[in-house]
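Onboarding guide, step 5: your first structure request.
Type a short instruction followed by the sequence, for example:

Predict the 3D structure of this protein.
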Amino acid sequence: MTSTPQHLPDRSSVDAGDGSVTDAVQAPVLDVDNLTKSYPGEPPVQALRGVNLAIGEGELVGIVGPSGSGKTTLLQLMGTLDRPTSGHVRIGGLDVASMADDDVAYLRATRIGFVFQQFFLAEHATVLDNVADGLLYAGVPLEQRRQRAIDALELVGLAQRRHARPTQLSGGQRQRVAIARALVGQPAVVLADEPTGNLDQATGQSILALIDRLHRTGSTIVVITHDHAIAERMSRKVEILDGQIVADTGPDTGADARRRSPAPLARPAIHAPQAAYGGPVNHEPS
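The system replies with structure tokens like these:
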């Protein structure tokens, strides 16, 4: 076990990336600045072309686009699962480009929650342990991890199934477990990539209703989808096409009322693996 990375600044003031110091609480939860991403090839594939997007605390944002538009690439960069070709990604004012890999991994483990279409649950582990493992790389003691996991399962309505294994659950229940795991560490932002993609319509609607309810309690959530109907349900809709944002309905003006007190960044932890709970990194634009 190692200590908390020493290079992470105190959350009360952070480097904005241009030498100036900003108030982290006032900074956007998630901010991407002139982001580009290209993949090698003949010719190279330009997946993102100068994307700018700031997401405030308490917002519910739908990012929508067709296959190949760059939306999944954008999610991977926002989630620090990959590095941009150029531009900046800031999480709570912390500029990822200026951080060492270990510090980025710690930031990811403590500040970002992931929900994916494929669930990524360990089939050999119980529901409780799957959720509790969301705190493993934040250095939380075992009993606290399990109690917080029970609390998160209560939020998604599955505390009574905590001793079950994922193979004993329906698709909708497994996605609820994945959402509980994403929430258990009280992250600054939850990134959900096609969270209803593997579900039937009725189950998908129940997951979207859960996301709405969690948003109303103050969670900051970004949903990546190809479905305009899903994006329309969000308080803010951002459209991406050919690696560029082509439409944005603007910040959610009601987000301030749902803000939660930020948790401190510096706490005892071991370093997270580079893709902790993030699933595999896709190196093709999508």
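Each response can be followed by summary notes, for example: DSSP finds seven helices and twelve strands in the chain.
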